[in-house]
From TrEMBL:
It comes from Sporichthya brevicatena. It comes from the Bacteria. This is Acyl-CoA dehydrogenase. Keywords: FAD, Flavoprotein. Belongs to the acyl-CoA dehydrogenase family. Pfam families: Acyl-CoA_dh_1, Acyl-CoA_dh_N. InterPro entries: Acyl-CoA_DH_CS, AcylCo_DH-like_C, AcylCo_DH/oxidase_C, AcylCoA_DH/ox_N, AcylCoA_DH/ox_N_sf, AcylCoA_DH/oxidase_NM_dom_sf. Residues 107-222 form the Acyl-CoA dehydrogenase/oxidase C-terminal domain.
Length: 238
């Protein structure tokens, strides 16, 4: 995978995905134009070909910053079809996400993708939080300069970095043996980061005026998706 493709993905996320994220969440539909552009770029179902898995996860993480549901289309293209499911986050995602064509390898790849999407989403939430704190003042200083608030951001960023390192390390293992564990670690770190992001926004963090509440819901649902995959694994093993 070339750096040019990753630059194209970043440009697509900035130009189309970020502006559409709130609409996807509100309507529970991924616009056809989003999927069409992803097909043109060549990233729908990217995980099904011979692409290097760590590179695939880099694409998922980049898209996760815009929409975690859309990010999963990279590894589960059928996720735009089927019956809509009531869920806290991941709006626009359908039940077709559980393709399961090469189990358990497909299960492990999807688990890692969920972890990568969560990390991308949480990183974006922290960036939005830093921007918010840079614009707010209290007690005669900009909030981002308050040591305890800055430390909270750095701590969550470090948690995400550690979880991401474990995720990429697992992705380089041909057997993906630790995939469920490292994916769960990633989603835990993401949920923690996004809930801190909400708190750092004060009461505004719970409103739809800011992105962090939607991102937190997506990360919760990614964590739930991993539990769902574990249930499928247990059922097949029995």
């Amino acid at each position: 995978m070339t750096d040019l493709l990753l630059q194209t993905v970043d440009a697509f996320a900035a130009r189309q995905l970020y502006p559409a994220a709130a609409l996807i969440d509100a309507t529970d539909e991924v616009p056809a134009s989003i999927v069409d552009t992803m097909r043109e770029i060549g990233i729908v179902g990217l995980g099904d070909d011979d692409a290097d898995l760590p590179d695939v996860l880099r694409v998922v993480e980049a898209l996760g910053a815009g929409s975690a549901a859309v990010a999963l289309l990279v590894v589960a293209p059928a996720a735009t079809t089927g019956t809509a499911r009531a869920r806290t986050g991941l709006r626009g995602l359908r039940s077709g996400v559980q393709t399961g064509c090469d189990f358990p390898a497909e299960h492990r790849r999807l688990a890692l993708a969920a972890g990568a999407a969560a990390i991308g989403a949480a990183r974006h939430a922290l960036k939005e939080t830093a921007r918010y704190l840079e614009q707010r003042r209290a007690f005669g200083q900009v909030l981002i300069d308050v040591p305890v608030l800055a430390a909270a951001l750095r701590g969550r960023e470090a948690d995400l970095d550690d979880a991401a390192s474990a995720l990429w390390g697992c992705a380089r293992d041909p057997l993906l043996g630790r995939a469920p564990d490292v994916a769960r670690r990633a989603t835990r770190a993401a949920v923690g980061a996004t809930f801190d992001a909400i708190q750092l926004h004060g009461g505004y963090g719970y409103t739809t005026e800011y992105q962090v509440e939607r991102i937190a819901r997506d990360c919760i649902s990614l964590r739930a998706l991993l539990a769902e995959l574990d249930d499928v694994a247990a059922a097949r093993a029995s």
